[in-house]
Structure formats: structure tokens, C-alpha cells
Design goal:
Helix content is 43%, strand content 15%. The chain is built from 15 helices and twelve strands. It has helices at 11-14, 20-40, 52-55, 65-72, 86-95, 118-127, 141-145, 156-162, 174-181, 203-212, 226-231, 238-248, 259-268, 289-298, 307-321; strands at residues 42-47, 61-63, 79-83, 100-102, 133-136, 149-151, 167-171, 187-190, 217-220, 234-235, 252-256, 273-275. It binds 1,3-dihydroxyacetonephosphate and iron/sulfur cluster.
Length: 323
């Protein structure tokens, strides 16, 4: 029999990001979640925007949307708990139809996923006959099923160019489409969806930070408006941002993205100074240690996919993974 897991054994790693008293308040849930994972043969997949006590305390696999989708195909457990938003849990379920996929809060949505329906895709296809549809993974399974292929912020350019056509419908994130359009000769037709977190950053914010912190490195997520990305030093998916910090080791850095990202990356880089003008994603923040524990205790909330759309949605995700 395995010895019980001790939350204290993790504290050294996170000590420069999480105060000791706060970590102590998490210990009971962290230890219970480790025990439940063993009992249920479960793994926790956590997105880079999860809070550090989840990301560093209980997650088995962490990453951006692309990594979570890829890793979901390799999971060797009976149960997947998705610590992230609903579209991520749906993607994990599409790739693991025989496994139980749980999300601790069904209401963890996404403003991009809410911005478009399968009917909208049908209207766009009517307006642009023969033009293939690339949908961002931040969409419902029903929208994925109505599209030709998915993409994430980590592979959008590659996916668009893999189609070998001059024109593509790239939905629903207007800013991601406009940011990718600057890097490719493929003509991209966008939708009007926005991420409610990243649309708040402005080019003025970037200039103010450069004035306040001379020499600072500014990294933006491609869901930010194009004028923000244009003034940043680098733009990439959440994994791309994290890799950029690891590879370039800036003295001082700003990540223009969701708040927990800097905390999570800072754990691995105590020598880098993180300036933190972040915006919270209210959907990501619905996931807590307490509801992860409840999810494993009660085996809830189980994510299911309508069988009428599951095969088509899976095809769009698998086609992306094969690019
Ligand atoms: P990434 O795929 O870059 O992790 O982005 C997911 C997301 O929801 C960003 O807001
Ligand atoms: Fe959706 Fe934006 Fe939240 Fe990501 S940060 S889950 S894109 S609302």
C-alpha cells in the first residue's frame, strides 16, 4: 500500500509564489485529491490558467489547449478530470469516448465558445461557397462538428496553411484570425467573437508598461487585439509564452494574458521578475481545489457528447492533431 501523499512535500517548489499559511489551507484538499486519484484511477489535466495550487498541487498533466488535447489521446486511466473550461473537457471526451471525463463545474464556459453556433457556420458556408472552415478549439462540440478542421493558438498558422487553399474561414476569434493573417498569404475571413479576457488589453497598456519598466519583455497571447500583438516582443499560445520565458530568461517580463499564468510560470523561474497587469478569466476561476475534490468524490459532472455530432467533431479535432 502506498504511503499517504503529503502536501508539505510540494511546498518548497511554490514557496516564492504561495505564502505558507495559504498552502497550509490547501493541504487537506490536496491530500484528499491525491488519495481519490489513486482510488478512482483518475488523472487531472489542468490548463495553464488554473490557479497555482491546482496547477502545481494536484495536476498530472498541464499545458495549453493543444497539449491537453494531445495528452488526452495518451491517457491510461479510467477517469479524466479536466481542470479547465467546458470545451476542453469536451475535447478530452471526444478523444476518449470510452473513458469517464469529469469537469468540476459545468458552468465553466468561454466567451469565444458562446459567440458562434452551428447555424452561424452554415450561414458562413452559404456566403462563402467552397471555402473550408477552420474553427478554434474554443468552441462547442456541435460547432466543431460543423467545421472542416480545428486549430489552437499554438498551431493556427500551420493548420490554415495545411489546407493548401487561398482562402479560409477562420472562426470564431476575430483577433486570432487577424493576428494569423499577418503571418500568412492565405486570405482569412473572420467571425466577430472575442475572448472577454484578452480583448481588454490595449496598445496603450503596452506603451505604459514600457515607460514604467524600461527594458521589460512583453509577451501577448494571440487572442489579444492585433495592435497589442504588434507592439509586443512575442506572441504565442500559453505554452509558447511559457517556453519563451524558459528559453530567453528575460530579467523582467509581462505576460498579457490570464492572471494565473504568471504565477504558474514564475514557480519555475524564481530569477525572473514578473510584472502582473493581468485579467481574470471568470470561467477558468470556477474550478477550485474544493470542486475538484467533490468531482472525484461524487464522480461528477460527467461530460457527454451528443452521438449525432460526436464522430464529426472528433474528425475535426483528429485532423488538427495529424497536422
Ligand atoms: P491556449 O491554447 O493558448 O492555452 O489558450 C487557451 C485559452 O483559452 C486562452 O484564452
Ligand atoms: Fe475563453 Fe478567454 Fe477564458 Fe480562454 S481566457 S477560456 S478564451 S474566456
Amino acid at each position: 500500500m502506498n504511503a499517504p501523499f503529503s502536501a508539505a512535500s510540494l511546498y518548497d517548489r511554490v514557496s516564492h509564489v504561495i505564502p505558507k499559511a495559504e498552502w497550509l489551507s490547501f493541504s487537506d484538499d490536496i491530500e484528499a485529491i491525491h488519495r481519490l486519484k489513486r482510488e478512482r484511477n483518475a488523472v487531472i489535466l489542468a490548463h495553464n490558467y488554473q490557479t497555482p495550487e491546482i496547477f502545481h498541487g494536484v495536476a498530472d498533466i498541464v499545458g495549453d489547449s493543444l497539449a491537453l488535447a494531445r495528452e488526452a489521446t495518451r491517457v491510461d486511466a479510467d477517469v479524466i478530470v479536466l481542470a479547465g473550461v467546458h470545451f476542453m473537457a469536451e475535447t478530452a471526451k471526444l478523444l476518449n469516448p470510452e473513458k469517464t471525463v469529469l469537469i468540476p463545474d459545468m458552468a465553466a464556459g468561454c466567451s469565444l465558445a458562446d459567440s458562434i453556433t452551428p447555424e452561424d457556420i452554415a450561414l458562413m458556408r452559404q456566403a462563402h461557397p467552397g471555402v473550408p472552415v477552420v474553427t478554434y478549439v474554443n468552441t462547442s462540440a456541435a460547432v466543431k462538428a460543423a467545421s472542416d478542421i480545428c486549430c489552437t493558438s499554438g498551431n493556427a498558422k500551420r493548420v490554415v496553411e495545411s489546407l493548401g487553399v487561398p482562402k479560409v474561414l477562420m472562426l470564431p476569434d476575430e483577433y486570432l484570425a487577424r493576428n494569423v493573417a499577418r503571418e500568412t498569404d492565405v486570405e482569412l475571413i473572420a467571425w466577430h467573437g472575442h475572448c472577454e479576457v484578452h480583448e481588454l488589453f490595449t496598445a496603450e497598456d503596452v506603451r505604459e508598461m514600457r515607460d514604467a519598466f524600461p527594458g521589460v519583455t512583453i509577451i501577448a497571447h494571440p487572442e489579444c487585439p492585433p495592435e497589442v500583438v504588434a507592439e509586443a516582443d512575442f506572441a504565442g499560445s500559453t505554452a509558447g509564452m511559457s517556453d519563451y520565458v524558459r528559453d530567453t530568461k528575460p530579467g523582467r517580463v509581462v505576460l498579457l494574458t490570464e492572471c494565473s499564468m504568471s504565477d504558474n510560470v514564475a514557480v519555475n523561474h524564481p530569477d525572473v521578475n514578473f510584472v502582473r497587469p493581468c485579467n481574470l478569466c471568470p470561467h477558468m476561476k470556477r474550478i477550485t481545489l474544493a470542486n475538484i475534490r467533490e468531482a472525484l468524490e461524487g464522480m461528477r459532472h460527467e461530460v457527454t457528447i451528443d452521438p449525432a455530432i460526436a464522430d464529426d467533431a472528433r474528425r475535426a479535432v483528429e485532423r488538427m492533431l495529424s497536422v
